[in-house]
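Two proteins, back to back. First:
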Amino acid sequence: MAFGIWLGVFVLLSVWPSVRCSDLPRGAIETVCRDRYLLVTTQLSFAGNEPRFEAVDADGVHPITKQYGSECGYMFSILPLPGHAELRASYFSCHTDNQDDEVFTFSFNLITIDANGVEATYSVTATCSLPLPWSPREVSCEENYMEVSMRSDVSCLSGTTDAWTAALAKAHSSATSTWQVMFQQEGQQLIPMSFSEARELGYVFHLTQGRLVFRSPYTPRSVMGSVSMINGSVVEVVHPILFSRQRWVVMMVDWIVACSTNEGMYDGVGLVWQTPTLLSPLVSGLSGLESIKISMGVDGQLLDEPITAERGYSLDISDTTVQISIPFNAAGGYRKSFVMGNMYHEVYVVHLYYEQIFLDDCGVETRLRLHRPMNTPLLIQHLSIINQTVLEDRVFTVYLGNLYYDVDLVAVTVNGHNFTILEATKSDLVITMVPQPNSNLHAYILRLPFEDAAVHKLYSPEGLLQFSMDINYTLVILPQEEPFYYLASVVAQFNDVFPPVFKGVCNEKSISFQMDHKPFDYLWEVGVGPYILTTNLAAKRGYIMQNDSKSLTLEVPLFSVGYTYKDINLKQFYGSFEIHSRLPKTLEVKSSLVKACLFQTTEVIVCSTEGVVTVVTDVTLAIPGAEPNGTFLLDSTCRPQETDDTRALFSFGLHTCGTRVQVDHQHVTYENEINVEYTSQSVNAPVKTRDTASVIIVRCVYPLSDLYKLFAYWRFDADSPGVGTILTRVPVKTFQPTFPPTTRRPLTSRQSLQLANEPT
């Protein structure tokens, strides 16, 4: 609560003809009567960045410049942080109408300048009734001047000093009926001068209805003042002595004004200001001065102790010094963020208001008031990055903290992927603003799943899986929206992460695979050759696949696409099937299993990528009783490599043994025939004869696009195995009934071999 009460305020606002009163926005100009001055404020948004004031009285208009303000009791300042300009006018300022030291009337012109440089003038008039009774002596330590006033009937002399004796002697020898003044300075001779001469030096003496007023600027313009160091604080002192001869009596008024000019300091925690408990110049000038009360506040208003305690202010009083501490960013001050060299800076400003009451031996009260702006240097604000990611959630959670509420996040870049705050809401990126506990700061929490395309993934064969994000935060300082950038990198790492592992089992007519699911199986694709293993692929190729939350099982029937074959003979052969895990982007195979199983041979045809056909077929299906060792191909020199009672095994090159070739727009077809010698007997003739018949057609079909090397280099090298078919012709008539024709469906396989089987 402010010290004192408000007894009455009368404010009149008017404008020159160039601007109408209705043009004034609400709060554009405000006036407040304080204990010992009128406060006029105007918003910079209304007045522009360089407003100025003029004092107006019956004698005319008086621009309030820096020098004129220090001489006449006006303190004008532009305060960018709160966003306004303010004028503090002392009740004893030069152009104020003073009625019995109780009612004070002010008149000013406010000149504003808009963005286009156009000036406008507003007339501001205010009348203040004295809110608080005058103390016998009052000292005001303003930012740009010192002012002392005292009741004209105050007198208290207890003893004399050598300086007073010297001043008295000088006054006796030079006094006239006109008032004069001498400025006492240590080691300097007292020189009497008139009030007008003192005024030329910047000093103002004024006699009101009941008080004597003296005003002085600070050093260096205070040529008659001095600076002292008292208990570690700088104190400015001016000591004028007024004298006049009235008949046989010399009247003397001994004035002294002392103000601490300590600007305060920043100690890393907050702002600290210090002043001597007793200003020794005042003590020496006034008899037995004793400090009886000390109060503090901000912005020209004193605060009660509960409020200062709530805000964290501290007031420490010792026998020698008074120390005031205000924590950084405490209520009552002004904090602002800045950007310099892409660094986030801040500054904190407090307008300290200090009051101290003294009592001398005569019981006369002296009240000292002081205005002192304090600010921190430009401080670097260190942002905090906390990686709050929980690996089991598989979601990055990144906390960016230590941001004040004049800082906004407008965009982020994650590994080169740009997201505005609006765009983030349409993606898997979630950005949430949260308050920081126990502070007036706020933070942003960024969440992004590991599986998102913007996240970098790195896997090493040693089983280390690493997810990483390089984040570039774009932040702006409000309200000017000045941008700056903050970089952060976060990593999440898993150990013992390996590609899926399959187990293979041989069955009578198939191979089965099983894979147990693990948390990171989604990082790899399960493939068969160049294709991803999907339910559609399995259904198309005749695989039997089951996939649940625990495992994946795949049964691949013999002669399905994907098999390779070797060591084929009439008894058995090896069939192999490969399944592998690979990276989705690079298709790099990280693990594979090739399961080879031994199968019993019935009928087989293999069209290899090297252009070799291997076929096992039962020739007795076409000619019952035929001898397989009597079979041959179109080239009769091409005989079977192995035979038994019913079957023959041939293996030959596609460009040998009389093989025919036919080319169309999409395929190349190779055909050969298996011929057999057999014995026949006519019904009408009992004599048996030996004949030759083409009973089986062997066919291999390759995609034309796979055989480019054949036409480029005259070398057979297919990209994939061909599709093989065994076709049996109409059985030859013998003594047995004629067999109906049999069609055998092709069987296909992947990798290096392709084959078809014709069931009997």
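And the second protein:
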Amino acid sequence: MADPAGCCRPCATCLLCLYSCQWITAKKEKRKGLRTTKCDYSWFLSLFCVFLFTLVWLYFAIIILNDFHNFNEFIFKQTKLWLDWSLLLLIVTTVLVTYSAVLLVLALCLQLCGQPLKLHWLHKTLLILTALVVAAAFTGLGIKWAEEWKSARISLQATGPFLHFGIVGGMTLLAWPLASFIYRTRNTGLKVFLLLVYWMVMIALYLVPLGITSPCIMEENQLPPKPALIGHRGAPMLAPENTLMSLHKAVNCDVQVFETDVMVSADGVPFLMHDEELIRTTNVQAVFPERATFNSTAFNWTDLQQLDAGSWFLERRPFPTVQTLSAGDHNEATKQRIPSLEQVLKEAKQSNISIMFDLRPENHSDYQSFVNATLQVILQSGIPPQQVLWLPDGFREQVKQQAPGLQQVYGRKRLQNEKEPLWHVNLPYQDVSSEEIREYRQDNISVNLYVVNQPWLFSVLWCSGVSSVTTNACQVLKEMKHPIWLLPRSTYLMIWIVVDCVSFLVILWAFVLMKKCSQRTRSAESETDVLLTKINSLMQE
């Protein structure tokens, strides 16, 4: 098999070595009669599928980074071991994608050079392992973290147009090795089948934008106001969560509401704490080792004040941003203690920042006394009642009667024939569609969605018209003056038409050029055969 024009034998030999793990020159290959068999083509198809599989998983891995801190907390709760698993996830995923991509590029180059696709058994084994690892990752995602499928669907509103352009580009480039194969094979049925499949896929891709919807495809003057920021446990990327330092950092980020979690100590003092146990965010194992696994509400206020609520932040580094903190911030973090609700309300009043909180644990037998103690502290603090956003559902009617000025925030969607209108709702961002957000906005219902950390997600919700978002990354979202992208529909349609036309022309060019190359190659082979025949005739004479 002669090398096509522009494909040197050393290059072909090198490609064979990497793909087949055999140092076979083109001449030796011809002598040995190596050809690409149906089995080899099956492995090439498997390689292509594994590459797409790993590429889709890479996309999911990037999307779920928005919520990965929750996964880290879940693993810590199970194992009491803290590690930023997102780093491991990205490293493993990148290795798998890179490996399958390199193999695919080698295979396509071999096809263009007219060399056999003899995938080595070691590559075959590694490809199977890659597919199994990614399949296990998707299975685990579906079982333990099913809401991330909704996150992926939402992400398509931000990435859909660009994914479309990228896929069209990739399929357009695929036309070159496809054309090379079609002009080399003598199987007419296979040629027709491949051409039909390829053009059906391309036509479908060309029409995909008709089904792409994104709230960010709009005119500039239609863009809703930027959502307000609510600090999730303060500013947890800049300070230990649920501490006064975290509250101050949130204020510096122009956060309008400090979102936190309240528990009540054994002697009736409401304090800030998210976990039912104190292990993750304090040094309780060192101070009270025999009671380290006790519920947070089992400690009295005197005991709680002995705990260090800041050093863990520097030791475990729950976010990469910890490394960027100044020496002064490090020193301040080590001095943090568990704050009482009274202290936080005082700071919130001075900073003119609202506070929104959950009261935990909801299933506690003394929950009503927790509500009473918390409500008493709020009423005695002197904070304007409109600065307090009340989230707990338990004994809500009692709270409305005793403190009618508090803003009632509901963790559910409104119901049909609702007797009392909902003016504030607080929901996971996965549970509300862009259409529902627009409907709530038209009805003057304030919608807060949590937890929103990535700029792409913030941009989609901004375009949708959400009122506010709860975030860990207030320092990042604060700097955003505009959504990541905003396209008028007319501009998007024009780009779509241009991309599709360019793609179509490039594909035609690829097939025409590869046909000419194939004709030249066959002509050269015919001339070589004629010359060899003459030489043989002369030698026989």
